[in-house]
Each structure stands twice: as structure tokens, then as C-alpha cells.
Write a structure and sequence with these properties.
This protein has about 190 residues and is mainly alpha-helical. The protein is built from 6 helices and 4 strands; from the N terminus they run E-H-H-H-H-E-E-E-H-H. About 20% of the residues are buried.
Length: about 190
């Protein structure tokens, strides 16, 4: 996370307590907006999350403690204190400890539920409706191939993300939700 300009990097979360901090649905909604490139006040985040500004401020401070968001420069009159993401995306890497597994699963449930809601919110007469897709595949890969697949998929996403945020993107673009999961299944081979 500590690069020359950390906001141009993916924020990697491995601490189970930080992952638990992500699992709250209101926090996920806020993170989704801030990581799309928006800079928002606690009041604006509260409107998105359906919370009071004071409750939202609590959530933002919790996310700040875990290195997920930070305060942006105050407005010229100093009254508004906006927040921004610390990077361009989040990556969860903790699965080893049981607490990490539980926290990761809670956060993933929240993400999957939000993507399902977005599928349901998309109307049949939306001209982009035919582009919504959900795919599920099963591959047989070595550990090294699985690592490479995850890296390649993230590289593809990062290539499309470059220079595009909620406030700066080419005309004709639209926000697209993407949920990517690479999950080993079955028993590991004996030589792992």
C-alpha cells in the first residue's frame, strides 16, 4: 500500500479485523462510490447508504483507521470535509486464519448480494441490459497457473480502469459493476 502515490494502486487488505470492517453493507456502498473515483462528504455518503451523517461519519472513521479511505482536502470555506479512496480498488488476501476466513466470507456475501441487487435493478428496457452477464466456469489449474490467472484478470480490469473515474471518463461510458472471484475447490493435490 505504501507506493509513491498510493491512490494509483490497489489497496490490499489482509488483516481479518480490516476485512470485518468492510463487511457492513453501508460501508460497502460507501466504498463502492469512493473507489469509483468520487470524493464525497459524510452527508453525501449518508444519502447513498441510507444512514444519518453522524452514523456515516463513524463508518468513515473506521474505514480510515484500516487504511481504506482518507480525508480529502477541505472545501475552500473549510466547512465540508470530504473523503476519498486510498486506491483504485480493493483486494482481500486473508484466508489463512479462521478469523480471516470468516471476515472474508462476510465481506463476499455483502458484495455478492449487492451485485444481485444490481441485476434486479436493471430494467428490461435498458438499452445495455443485453450486456449484463454472469458466468461460472471450472478450470483445472496448478497453483502457479491460478496465481497467474488472478493476476491476468486483475491486469485486464486495471487496463480498462486507467484514467476513468466517476468524475473523469470518456463520453458514452457507463458505470459497470464487476465481481471477480477465483476460488479453489475440491481437495488440494498431495504435492501442494
Amino acid at each position: 500500500m505504501a507506493a509513491k502515490n498510493p491512490r494509483n494502486k490497489r489497496v490490499v487488505i489482509s488483516d481479518p479485523r480490516a476485512i470485518r470492517a468492510l463487511a457492513h453493507p453501508a460501508r460497502q456502498r460507501i466504498i463502492d462510490e469512493l473507489y469509483s473515483g468520487r470524493v464525497l462528504t459524510a452527508t453525501e455518503c449518508a444519502e447513498l447508504a441510507g444512514l444519518t451523517p453522524s452514523a456515516t461519519s463513524y463508518h468513515l472513521r473506521a474505514l480510515e483507521r484500516w487504511g481504506i479511505v482518507e480525508r480529502a482536502e477541505a472545501s475552500s470555506d473549510g466547512r465540508e470535509r470530504p473523503w476519498r479512496a486510498l486506491g483504485t480498488g480493493l483486494q482481500i488476501t486473508s484466508q489463512s486464519a479462521e478469523s480471516g476466513r470468516v471476515a472474508t466470507h462476510a465481506m463476499m456475501r455483502t458484495n455478492v448480494d449487492r451485485v444481485l441487487e444490481q441485476f434486479e435493478e436493471l430494467s428490461a428496457d435498458d438499452p445495455w441490459e443485453d450486456l449484463s452477464t454472469l458466468g461460472r466456469n471450472r478450470l483445472w489449474l496448478t497453483r502457479e497457473e491460478t496465481e497467474q490467472l488472478a493476476k491476468d484478470l486483475n491486469d485486464v480490469i486495471d487496463g480498462f480502469r486507467k484514467g476513468r473515474t466517476a468524475t473523469s471518463h470518456p463520453a458514452g461510458t457507463r458505470s459497470i459493476s464487476l465481481l471477480l472471484a477465483v476460488v479453489p475447490t475440491g481437495k488440494p493435490p498431495h504435492d501442494s
